[in-house]
UniProtKB/TrEMBL annotation:
Keywords: Membrane, Transmembrane, Transmembrane helix. The chain crosses the membrane at residues 21-44, 64-82, 94-112, 118-135. This is DUF998 domain-containing protein.
């Protein structure tokens, strides 16, 4: 990714670090919660319900692909964090907000896949907590 910078300055233009941090956090939050869902809620207690009514073989393949995507998202998010830190444009507020939004997005999706009211409640809380720093930054006049 190329970076547009001010003349003679190694820091990216206003807002670029916030966007990078937000996306990095989103991907990491999504991947981290996907891992927690898989390991803690399914693998350790040895339960794997398939709600789509498909055969268990197809369900295992689709579930494996889904969680492989979660790991890919987490690793890509960490690579983006390292890149933003190297460029000295990592915004920790937006990183945290993105992580909460990613986690909340996963929880919301997970609630659709297996309808469960507590999942939706957790998703709404995570999404609201992720929006809070974004709204407060907007009121202050932008990021950076």
């Amino acid at each position: 990714m190329s970076s547009v910078t001010r003349a003679g300055n190694a820091r990216p233009l206003r807002g670029e670090g916030s966007r990078r941090s937000l996306w990095a956090g989103f991907l990491f939050g999504l991947g981290a919660v996907a891992f927690i869902d898989e390991a803690v809620l399914h693998r350790l207690p040895h339960r794997r319900p398939f709600h789509d009514g498909s055969a268990s073989g197809i369900g295992l393949v689709s579930d494996g692909l889904f969680h492989a995507f979660g790991w890919f998202a987490a690793v890509l998010g960490l690579v983006m964090v390292a890149d933003a830190a190297r460029r000295r444009c990592l915004d920790k507020r937006f990183l945290g907000a993105g992580a909460l939004l990613g986690a909340g997005g996963f929880q919301y999706y997970n609630g659709i896949a297996s309808p469960d009211r507590p999942w939706y409640a957790i998703a709404v809380l995570l999404l609201a907590a992720g929006c809070w720093p974004l709204l407060s930054a907007r009121r202050r006049g932008g990021a950076e």
